[in-house]
Design goal:
homodimer; alpha/beta; Rossmann fold; 36% helix
Chain lengths: 400, 400
């Protein structure tokens, strides 16, 4: 049903940035420019915080060249925020939307952002304010419900695969035990992406612990010792969320969604490295925390990811305007999985708000502290082709 | 003077890996294959450790395709080592070289590796064993004497520039105070490379502390507070070597060259972040340690760096065989600096062994805790073109 609702649109970005979140922003702006129902396109700076502060910018005045450059730039060009608006704040948001004749609201973010959009949308209904809200999905964690995968994940997973590939070569050069900490509080998709680094039989990572695994420090140390004994080195990749399963570790800082602060600190990697040093007596033990580089590295973008991020922005506008519905954009994978193909569908806001998903249980190979090859089949099309890692055939010379 | 010395060649890799150290290896192998004076090309696994263990591989049997793939793979394909051979070990090395009729030794590494090569070469002279040694320079630290710059630096600096670019966008999206720790114990070239991330006036890094700076924790906190006050955010980049200037920090583990272990741990970043939290009361304070990703990330290579790394390997062989000299390869920059051009010259081993260089004093802008634009002129040709970071013009909408 074509939509007669005319007015201005607001677009905002929320939650942790990604390498392609600006593709979605630009998708929203370009698509919105095509529809006469949308007069002005306002960008809210720092998401709901910008709406509350009436801090809007005029996105229709931006040049197409600048917008394309922004699309290829990591992190949220409008600024982001981690804020769940209170009922009072939502009331204030309507006041501002009414004043500015805002009839379309597009919120780019993860499940927390979908929740914020959903709250605002519900209040609009209660207030009988005619209004369309669409959530535009993004999250490197890949933990949104309904969708096969989420824009932002492919590029982050690509960074992680490349970093782990190089780090495994590094660890082979100067053998020792290396612990890498990956983003992901609850969902292990990013941790699992480390397994994409493997091309030869003894390539690392040799042990992979996503947050979904059952974790015991003793068993962990035993597994590390066994690999180290066998290969003379060991590359272990651990999701940051595993820290919450270790009673000795205290976590404090929380954001307004109740999420514990795990990133932006090297403590968990150092904790595990120190345990390995102390209990296994291994000499060369190092830890790296990939940190914010995973989501914002400039110049490591999966092409598929960038394309899909643009498309979800476009579809959100198209459905809100042409179909006159609220919701979120989901990506469905088509076919038998051999050839990669997707389509985009709309899904009600409440289906993606709040709750998140974990990796399918059968992608974990718990007894080997590893990830199933099913993950590779799933993730590789999202990540794109990876460079072949060369290795010497290394024909030995006889000792004399 | 053409060289009549015929026999086998040994090539080894030593010290910290780089993204292009295998280019030098392949440069040695390809060039050595052209000279009839070199019969076999043996690769020593893990540098002097492999020589001592007679652990050689036959590099002439490798396929050209595999070698080219190895050249494009980060870290040391032969394996690396951090070991300064003792006098006894050097005696054992000759014994093995004699047995295998080794007359050419190429050692790819930094100043520590040049020192090891120099020790072996001196003992060869004392033993009147006719023998040519060439050191092939590599180090991400860029701290070798004589050379304008060192293969490995350009790619590491490129990684750092891209990471910092993205991280600055991330910090702008979710404002706070961010501390990044960069590799480099004494030389600040890698820390300085963070300044290449700047494209707009208020882009970070806002404060840069290479190891050469004078550092006071109080002044540091004052500077961070001032930037945070002004911009509402602050991106600070600190060389890991600065940790040695802070009395509160105890550093323990040392390698056999007496170098303190600083990498492979997040402690220094966390220390600074905790100081900022405690003393400035700032809320969102995060730290990342770029760690080993700086030297081994797969798929972030400067073209100039890869090319020059190949060339220094080739020149080492050419000079040893055709010119019959020992030494190391140095890169000289030519012209007025406007157009990038270099040539390669040979320099005696002792000129690059042991000692290292720091950044020129006038590249530090100490009063602003910053790096001079002179560094950009110097480093940009080595790093290659960087992606343009887009930014919204952000025309404000009037509040109503």
């Amino acid at each position: 049903m074509a939509n007669k609702l005319r007015g201005n649109a607001v677009v905002g970005q929320s939650g942790g940035p990604t390498a392609v979140i600006n593709q979605s922003l630009v998708g929203v702006v370009f698509e919105a420019s095509k529809h006469p129902q949308i007069e002005n396109i306002y960008g809210a700076r720092h998401g709901v915080k910008g709406i509350l502060g009436e801090d809007f910018v005029d996105l229709k005045r931006e040049s197409i060249g600048d917008l394309e450059a922004v699309a290829n730039t990591p992190a949220s060009a409008l600024g982001s925020v981690r804020q769940k608006p209170t009922t009072e704040e939502c009331a204030r948001i309507f006041e501002i939307f009414r004043k500015h004749d805002v009839r379309y609201f597009f919120y780019i973010g993860g499940n927390d952002s979908a929740e914020a959009a959903s709250i605002i949308n519900d209040l609009a209904k209660d207030a009988e304010y005619e209004f369309r809200t669409f959530h535009v999905p993004k999250t490197i964690d890949n933990d949104l419900l309904v969708s096969d995968h989420t824009p932002g994940f492919g590029s982050a997973a690509r960074f992680i695969a490349l970093a782990t590939m190089g780090d495994d070569c590094d660890n082979r050069s100067l053998p020792g035990i290396k612990v890498n900490i990956l983003m992901g509080r609850k969902a292990g998709f990013l941790t699992a992406a480390t397994m994409l680094a493997r091309q030869h039989d003894d390539d690392g990572p040799h042990l992979v612990y996503p947050p979904e695994c059952t974790f015991s420090l003793d068993k962990f140390l035993g597994s590390v010792a066994a690999v180290y004994q066998k290969l003379g080195r060991c590359l272990v990749c651990v999701g940051e969320g595993v820290a919450e399963k270790i009673p000795e570790i205290k976590l404090q800082e929380k954001d307004s969604h109740g999420n514990v602060q795990l990133s932006g600190s090297g403590f968990f990697g150092d904790f595990l490295a120190n345990q390995i040093k102390a209990k296994l007596g291994a000499k060369r033990v190092r830890a790296d925390t990939y940190g914010y580089l995973q989501r914002s590295f400039a110049g490591c973008v999966s092409e598929v990811d960038a394309f899909e991020a643009r498309r979800v922005g476009e579809f959100a506008v198209r459905w809100a305007v042409a179909e006159n519905v609220d919701g979120s954009v989901a990506i469905r994978r088509l076919g038998d999985g051999k050839d990669y193909a997707v389509d985009f569908v709309s899904t009600p806001l409440e289906t993606v708000a709040r709750n998140t998903k974990s990796m399918p249980a059968d992608w974990l190979v718990s007894e080997q502290s590893d990830i199933s090859e099913k993950f590779r089949t799933y993730a590789l099309p999202l990540v794109g082709e990876l460079p072949r890692q060369g290795r010497l055939a290394a024909y030995p010379i006889k000792k004399k």
